[in-house]
C-alpha cells in the first residue's frame, strides 16, 4: 500500500511528475511475477536486478519461473535505460536445477514435442548478464549460471551437474558449456559422478570470475554492472557479440570477425565521442548511437 500511495501522490502532482511515475511503475512491475523479483538498481537506475524467488523449492526451475525470467529479460532488453542485468537467487540457493516433480511426469514424446528445456535460456539478451551464485547452483541452475556472461560466487557456493544420479544427462548445455569453461577432464568428472565443486574450485578452474563473502557478492556484482552500464550500450553489445561468436569459431575466423566489428565501431557516434573525450581529457558522454 505504501508503494501504491507513492504512485498516487506522483499522479496527483500533474504532468511534471509523469516521468517519475513511469519509473515507479516499471520499478514495481514485480507485482506481475510470482517466482521472481525484479528491481532497478544503481545511482542511475540502469541495472536490473532479477532474483529467483521460490525459496521453499530452493529456486527449482519450474516452467512458470523460466517463463517469467524470459519475460523479465525481454523487458530489460527493450528498456533503453538498462545497461546490464544481475541475476541471483538467495544465500541458500541460486537454483537447484529443474523442478523434478514437474519433470518426472514428462515422457519422451513430451520432451521432444516441447523441445524441453527450451524455456531455459538467456542467450537472446544482448545486454550483459552477471550471475550471482550463493549456495547451490546444480543441474539447470549451474547451466543457467553458465549461460550468463560473468559469474560471481559467494564463498559457500557449490556448482554441480548431478543429472547422472537421476538417470539422465544435462540438457541445457551442461556437458558443453562446462567443458569449454573448465576443460574436458574436470567437466567429465563432474557430469559422470555428479560431484560438486566449491566456489574456490570453480574460480581456480575458470568457471567463476571472482569469489566474495556471501553478504557482499550481490553488491559487488551491482558495482560491476553499473560500470558496464556506464559505457555505450551499442559498443557493449558489440563487444559481447565478439566474445560469444568468436567462442564458437576457429581462431582465424574469430579474429576476422572481431576486426569487422572493430571497424564497425568507427561508424558510431560513441566511438568518436570516446576518443574525443580521451584527447580532451574529459569524461565521455555516450549516447548509445
From TrEMBL:
<comment type="similarity">
    <text>Belongs to the enoyl-CoA hydratase/isomerase family.</text>
</comment>
<dbReference type="GO" id="GO:0005739">
    <property type="term" value="C:mitochondrion"/>
</dbReference>
<keyword id="KW-0456">Lyase</keyword>
<dbReference type="GO" id="GO:0006635">
    <property type="term" value="P:fatty acid beta-oxidation"/>
</dbReference>
<dbReference type="InterPro" id="IPR029045">
    <property type="entry name" value="ClpP/crotonase-like_dom_sf"/>
</dbReference>
<dbReference type="Pfam" id="PF00378">
    <property type="entry name" value="ECH_1"/>
</dbReference>
<protein>
    <recommendedName>
        <fullName>Probable enoyl-CoA hydratase, mitochondrial</fullName>
        <ecNumber>4.2.1.17</ecNumber>
    </recommendedName>
</protein>
<keyword id="KW-0443">Lipid metabolism</keyword>
<keyword id="KW-0276">Fatty acid metabolism</keyword>
<dbReference type="InterPro" id="IPR001753">
    <property type="entry name" value="Enoyl-CoA_hydra/iso"/>
</dbReference>
<dbReference type="InterPro" id="IPR014748">
    <property type="entry name" value="Enoyl-CoA_hydra_C"/>
</dbReference>
<dbReference type="InterPro" id="IPR018376">
    <property type="entry name" value="Enoyl-CoA_hyd/isom_CS"/>
</dbReference>
<dbReference type="GO" id="GO:0004300">
    <property type="term" value="F:enoyl-CoA hydratase activity"/>
</dbReference>
